[in-house]
Amino acid sequence: MNTVVKWSNISRRSVLIAVMLFIILFLFWWSILPVPLFQDPYATVLFDREGQVMGMKVADDGQMRFEEVQDLPPRYVISVLVFEDRYFLAHQGVNWWALCRALVQNIQAGHVVSGGSTLSMQVVRLALGNPPRTVPEKIREIFLTLRMEQSYSKKQILEMYASHAPFGGNVVGIRAAALKYFNRRPEQLSWAEAALLAVLPNAPALLYPGKNNTLLKQKRDGLLAKLYREGVMSEDSYHLALAEPLPEKKFDIPTVAPHLLAKAYREKKGKVCPTYIDGRLQKKINEIVERHTALLSQNYIYNMAVLVAHVPTGEVRAYVGNSAPRKGSRGNDVDIVQAVRSSGSILKPALYACMLQSGFILPGTLVPDIPSRFGSYSPSNFNRDFKGVVPARQALAQSLNIPFVRLLKDYSYARFYDDLKQLGIRSLNRDADHYGLSLILGGAETSLWDICNLYGGMSAVLNHYNDRDGQYFDGEYSRLKVWEEYSGAEGQDEEEKNKGNRYRLVYLMNDAVECFLTFRNARITGEYLPDYSGELGTRLDRSEKRSSLVVHQGHNVFTIFFETLEVEYELYNYGEIGHFWVKGYEYLRQLEYRIAILWDKYEYMGEDCCSEMEQKLAWLAKFP
After folding, report:
1. Who's near 215: CB < 8 A, 6+ residues apart?
2. Residue 533 — very low, low, confident or very high, per pLDDT cuts 50/70/90?
3. Bridge-partner residues for 69, per DSSP?
4. Long-range CB contacts (< 8 A, 24+ apart) of 146-149?
5. Three-class DSSP labels, 417-432
6. Measured distance CA(120)–CA(122) in Å, rounded
7. In angstroms, what CA-CA distances link 275 with 142, 247, 335, 468, 575?
8. Which residue of 77, 248, 284, 481 has the fewest C-beta atoms within 10 A of its own C-beta?
9. Do 410 and 391 touch, CB atoms closer than 8 A?
10. 203-240 as b/e, with b when 16 or more CB fall inside 10 Å?
11. pLDDT tens across 509-530, in order?
């Protein structure tokens, strides 16, 4: 009996030890594979709305390596499997017959001539950093490959291979290779291009476009022949693929929006960043900025920024953070779109609309324009003149300073401060008492982004009111977006209308914007022209010259800023197209500098529009 009990205890102990050993081995087996498998840094890449690259910053290790691709093009997948591992979908990570064959070949040759690696084993080898080819390393690769096949699907393994395979030089991954060698996305590759990229990782240090092209073409054509024999390609496709030349050099990736790329690098480092930018429009605006900066630099104006947004959607279509550096310039690396500076008189329409909204004034309410002092603060108009008393509407159209300081005093600068916060002005980072009454005359700081958001929101409110039969929406003043994955206010259902938003500035905004955007009482063919208008404002100190122009037409909002360290000129343009005579201060008044905004955009709109615009511009040019 004692013997039976003794053996029973031994048996239980053995089972317990076996279970513990199994758990330990299982945990060890499960932990031998790194998570994530690849910890390489990625490049930051900027794409426009059409998928064209606009700029790139390489990864921290200097490699042009993009984020892992999710869906590989069929042509590339077939080419890789035929060239590298035709049994990839059948084996469990290791092709034992291939390993045995490689062993025999290496013994016969007396040195390593074949590795017998599958695609899965190559992925492990890439993840390990391409260690020396030794027997212990091969055994390690086998174990890690078997373990990897338990955690990843074949699709995921193939995607990791395509994303981390070397393609010559510092080009890593199919996305970078397709862009660098062919200037296109992987899904746009032809059979010849897909075959070329399939053979490149086989010997990237020896074979890549522009080096050993004869041998590289032989490898590519050999793979194309295999594909043709397998029945993958038709005869015509095969002969056309053979006739395609190899790329002679790598494609130089342009930097179309350098400041937006820097923003992406700060906010989305290591990501592929699709944007709403219109690539053609961006390039045209770059040309216009360069052209005008070249002229304005003669008056020591070296910095210019442009932001273009689509009002119905809030999508940013062009982003020029600053002009290109030139002799004598400074600060060109600063992103003026995001940088804050004095608001000048650009907030006057907002105060006017808020006071209409709250019932403080009517458009015809008379406001004193007389010498005034508010404690130690004594504002003055730009022309140092006084009109005695003016209607509020006229005070806005002429951007009179004293009447608006008085209006702000009646309305309360603390209340207006809160209104601006709700209207999307995020840059007011001090309390209301810090700004006081100077809030309306440039005492506050704001950014080009916020101003574009504000005026785009005004237009969106009015558009929605007219299009949706008096309905209102949330998020009208926080809808500006540049990254494609942004989920904003556009696309809301009618049920999501704003029920409590006090900024239902419909006829108010219409009145404010129309008034603010009017060249005096300019008429064309007997009608008001609210879509061509401007406001010239200034800060109190004439040594700190600043002016702003707001123009509205169509579905786009344009915001433009001119600046130098000593002399500043600011233009906020709100419209589809603009070509305006701008007369600023003494140095600009002598220049009578004509600012052309998106003149080249006419090709989007046709010759009829161009002819009509020419007539309007010729008419506008007559006004002083």
Report:
1. 206, 207
2. very low
3. none
4. 146/92, 146/93, 146/94, 147/29, 147/30, 147/32, 147/33, 148/33, 148/37, 148/93, 148/120, 148/123, 148/124, 149/92, 149/93, 149/120
5. HHHHHHCCCCCCCCCH
6. 5
7. 42, 29, 17, 28, 21
8. 248
9. no
10. ebeebbbeeebeebbebbbebbebbbeeebbeeebbee
11. 455 545 544 432 332 222 322 3
> How far apart, in whole angstroms, are the C-alpha atoms of residue 398 and residue 322?
30
DSSP conformation class of 306: E
Measuring CA to CA, how many Å separate 321 from each of 269, 283, 299, 449, 458?
19, 13, 20, 10, 23
Indicate the burial class of 488 (C-beta count within 10 angstroms; 0-12, 13-18, 19 or more): middle
Cα 79 to the center of its chain, rounded Å? 34
What six digits make up the tokens of 308?
Answer: 């273009």
**Which amino acid is located at 144 in the chain?**
L
Residues forming a β-bridge with 288? none
State whether the Cα torsion 388-391-396-402 is positive or negative. Answer: positive
Structure tokens at 438: 């100077």
Look at residue 564 and tell me whether its pLDDT is greater than 90. no
DSSP-derived 3-state class of residue 350: helix
**Angle CA 530–285–332, to nearest 5:** 115
The span from the CA of 209 to the CA of 250, in Å, is 8
d(CA 146, CA 91): 10
CA 278, 282, 283, 285 torsion: positive or negative? positive
Q: What is the largest CA-CA distance in the chain?
A: 121
> Is-cis flag, bond preceding 36, omega within 30?
yes
The Cα 177–Cα 185 span in angstroms is 9
* Phi, psi (rounded to 5 degrees) for 528: -65, 155
- Predicted confidence (pLDDT) per residue in 211-225, tens digit: 778 888 899 999 999
What span, in angstroms and rounded, lies between the C-alpha atoms of 624 and 620?
A: 9
Q: Does 488 have pLDDT greater than 50?
A: no
CB 422 within 8 A of CB 318: no
Within 8 A by CB and 6+ apart from 1, the residues are none
Phi, psi of 334 (to 5 degrees): -75, 135
Report, in this order, helix, strand and coil percent for the chain, each rounded to 5: 45, 10, 40
**How far is 522 from 573, CA to CA, in rounded Å?**
18
Angle in degrees, CA 574, 577, 583, rounded to 5: 70
